[in-house]
Each structure stands twice: as structure tokens, then as C-alpha cells.
Design a protein that fits this description.
Ribosomal Protein L15, Chain: K, domain 2, Four Helix Bundle (Hemerythrin (Met), subunit A), alpha/beta, 5-stranded mixed sheet, about 350 residues, 4-stranded mixed sheet
Length: about 350
């Protein structure tokens, strides 16, 4: 099934018999031999091929890489298992040399701490916003949300006070333990505030079967992650060499690091609103055999796409959240090369 384009930049190919080919400088989408649409390559910067039934031609891949379009191959639930990138990228090898060396000095600590600070402050911001909105309709819930915000803020102050001379396993573990403590406050509050029909008991990543966690995982993996992975490469960075997330073969640690400060504003806020406004129901999340409902996925991608195109102030400049992700990746690169004194995570106001 063709889900279409999000913000005129992301082309999603999904469903059995859906095929992506090309003609001239256009992508051609077909389903079971019938042409559905032609899209100029100039309007696309990311192609998502989801599930075992969708396919893409070598000609379409060639067109994509020739014009700087990334192609992400993923499971039906949005988990990426491969990325086709242009062979010529921006940035220099010097950036990556600094990136690897920074793991052994203060720069690595600044980045790891910065990613976590961005996440906690944006969790705090969302909890405060939610508490404010609930004060007139549900005072008890507003108090619980405010209490959770105070818990996150307390953890945030501990993180602000933490310092180290260089990054190592102990430092990573300390920062991640504080991040986990804040997450308990955040997700516990969310479990109490979501409509009861969602039966959300807490955050589950791998092996999630409940509707809200499954949609969260899809939003993170299938929509936000490709943007962060792409941004790190465009900034000349190695997406597999991070600072907050531990190194593991095949784990795109830096892309995951960059995601942290965007999860709440881009994905969480969208899903919370969709659930509260009854735009999607738990019963509408799955089709047969626990496959995700195509209509629900289309709506979720549309909502997150709108969020990515919304405006935010970055460094005194108003730009889209999508561009802000690239801005932050380039900020990492500049900091690593000594062009910036520190890394300033992006904070979203409430």
C-alpha cells in the first residue's frame, strides 16, 4: 500500500505487491502492475520500504543515491534492517577522526551528558504542559503530573551536577541510570493520564504487544530514527560511534543519541494527542496476526510529519523541527572540531 509523502519529503512504500521503480528523474509507484503515482526525485529526500511484500528496483536505487535520497529498508513494524546511502557524502574524514578521539576525553562526556539533559528537559516540559492543561478538568491528575515533573526535575539537577574528565563505561552507566530514573517518573505519569482503554502500564521497547507501546516504537524507529541517521551522515559523522548509548556491533549509537532530545516533542506528544482526541482507538491499531493497521500508520505518519514541519527556534533562527535535527547534528560536528565551545541540546518550550 502506498502511504504517500510526509511533508513532501518522505515516500513510504508498504504492502504486498507495492513496487518502486523509476523513469527519467521520477520515482514510479506501482501496485500489482498498476501505476499509482509518479513523483519527481527532487521532491523526495527519504524513501521507506516497509515489510516483506514491498520491493524496489535497482534503477530506483540508482536514481535515489544519485540525487542524495536515502532508502531505508524496514520490517512491517518499522524496525530498520538496512539503509542505502549516497556514496558521496558531505563532511570530511577529519570530523570522524575527532569523533573517535572524543570518546577518550572531556568532549565525550559533554556530548553524552548533553543528549541526556535534552531528553530530561523535554520530558519535564511536556509534563508541565500536560499538568497545566489538566488543571481545569482533572485536578488530581494535574497534581500527579506536577509531582512527576518535580521528580524529573530533581533527577535533572543531579545530572547537571555530575561531571567527569573522560567518557568510560562507568560514566555512561551513571548518566544512563539518571536517565532511567527520570523515565520512571515520566512513563508512570503517562500511564495514569492516558485514557483507560489504552491499558498502558509502562514503557516496553522490545517485544511490546500493547497498542500504545507498539505505536511509540513505530514512531521512533520508522519515522524519527531515519531522520536522525540521515542527519548524522549529512553532518559528516559516523552514526555508529556514539557517546551516551553503549557501543555494540551494528548499533547506530550516535543516531540514537541524537534522537533523545526529539522523542518527546516529535513522537510522544503526537501520540498522546491522538489518544486523548480519540483520533485513533486501541482496537484500530492491529489488523490480522498483529500486523499494524495501514490507516492508523498513515495517520500517525501524517501527524508526526506535521510535527517535523512545525517551527522551532534554533540558535536565534526559526526553522522546521526536521531542519533542527540536521542543525543539531552539525552542531555536534562543530563542537568536536573545536568550532563550538560546548554542545547545546535543543529544548522545546511548554
Amino acid at each position: 500500500m502506498l502511504l504517500g509523502m510526509t511533508g513532501k519529503t518522505v515516500l513510504v512504500i508498504r504492502g504486498f505487491g507495492t513496487f518502486l521503480g523509476s523513469t527519467g528523474r521520477k520515482f514510479v509507484v506501482k501496485r500489482k502492475g498498476e501505476k499509482l503515482e509518479e513523483i519527481p526525485v527532487s521532491q523526495v529526500d527519504l524513501v521507506m520500504v516497509e515489510g516483506p511484500g514491498a520491493s524496489v528496483s535497482s534503477a530506483a536505487l540508482k536514481l535515489a543515491v544519485k540525487h542524495g535520497v536515502f532508502v531505508v529498508l524496514s520490517s512491517y513494524r518499522g524496525t530498520p534492517y538496512g539503509v542505502v546511502t549516497p556514496s558521496v557524502m558531505t563532511g570530511s574524514v577529519q570530523v570522524r577522526r575527532h569523533q573517535f578521539l572524543a570518546y577518550a576525553d572531556k568532549r565525550g562526556v559533554v556530548l553524552a551528558k548533553g543528549f541526556a539533559l535534552g531528553k530530561l528537559r523535554n520530558q519535564l516540559s511536556l509534563l508541565k504542559l500536560w499538568a497545566k492543561n489538566k488543571r481545569r478538568t482533572n485536578v488530581k491528575l494535574a497534581e500527579k503530573l506536577q509531582s512527576a515533573a518535580e521528580g524529573v526535575n530533581s533527577t535533572l539537577q543531579q545530572l547537571l551536577g555530575f561531571s567527569a574528565d573522560k567518557l568510560n563505561g562507568f560514566v555512561q552507566q551513571k548518566i544512563m541510570s539518571l536517565e532511567a530514573e527520570a523515565a520512571r517518573y515520566y512513563w508512570s505519569a503517562l500511564s495514569q493520564a492516558l485514557p483507560a482503554e489504552w491499558e498502558f502500564k509502562g514503557r516496553i521497547t522490545r517485544g511490546a504487544t500493547d497498542p500504545f507501546n507498539v505505536l511509540l516504537n513505530y514512531g521512533y524507529k520508522a519515522v524519527l530514527f531515519p531522520e536522525c541517521f540521515r542527519a548524522t551522515l549529512l553532518a559528516g559523522l559516523d552514526p555508529y560511534a556514539g557517546y551516551l548509548h553503549a557501543d555494540r556491533p551494528g548499533k547506530p549509537s550516535l543516531a540514537l543519541d541524537l534522537m533523545e532530545e526529539f522523542r518527546q516533542h516529535v513522537v510522544d506528544r503526537c501520540l498522546i494527542a491522538m489518544a486523548e482526541l480519540n483520533e485513533v482507538k486501541p482496537s484500530e491499531v492491529f489488523e490480522e496476526e498483529h500486523n499494524l493497521n495501514s490507516r492508523t500508520i498513515e495517520l500517525l505518519r501524517l501527524k508526526i510529519g506535521e510535527r517535523l514541519e512545525s517551527k522551532v527556534s534554533v540558535g536565534g533562527i526559526t526553522t522546521s523541527v526536521k531542519n533542527a535535527i540536521l542543525h543539531q547534528a552539525r552542531l555536534i560536528a562543530r563542537f568536536l572540531q573545536g568550532e563550538e565551545q560546548t554542545y547545546q541540546p535543543l529544548y522545546f518550550g511548554w
